[in-house]
Amino acid sequence: xxxxxxxxxxxxxxxxxxxxxxxxxxxxxxxxxxxxxxxxxxxxxxxxxxxxxxxxxxxxxxxxxxxxxxxxxxxxxxxxxxxxxxxxxxxxxxxxxxxxxxxxxxxxxxxxxxxxxxxxxxxxxxxxxxxxxxxxxxxxxxxxxxxxxxxxxxxxxxxxxxxxxxxxxxxxxxxxxxxxxxxxxxxxxxxxxxxxxxxxxxxx
Length: 204
What we know:
- The chain has helices at residues 2-18, 58-73, 76-83, 90-100, 107-121, 126-188, 195-203.
- The radius of gyration is 56 Å and the shape is elongated.
- Helices cover 68% and strands 0% of the residues.
């Protein structure tokens, strides 16, 4: 009897070992989305405004080149700004001279400023003076051209005035000639004969 019980227990234990143990389902790990790191471009530092100065530094030369281009295209805003100044340093005086050389200014103004600017530029460093040499040369050529045109115009006006006077003199002379011709024609006409007087003389 004991043997039967022992055998039965061994069989039961063997069955337990053969039965697979149920493993609880493991949770599937959810992978978090990976975000690509975006590198923002670095903001460029704003360029510092170029300062107008009376030296031959590269920054000063570039500043004057930019300034000349600006006032050539649109000089009025700068003229308005300079009119509000109460004191004029050397830079402001140079700016005013450049504006006075603008082609839209009268001949007399540009002629007067030409000499002043020549004196100012003569004291500048060589490279800075060379920048303004173009304005002086251009304005000088423009003044010469305008002077030549003015001279030709004045000469044409004088010639036209002389022509008008000659034409008037010719008209006056023609009137006098016509009057003299009329008088001469009247003098050359034979006197009219009186027939009645001649008949009476014949009867006597």
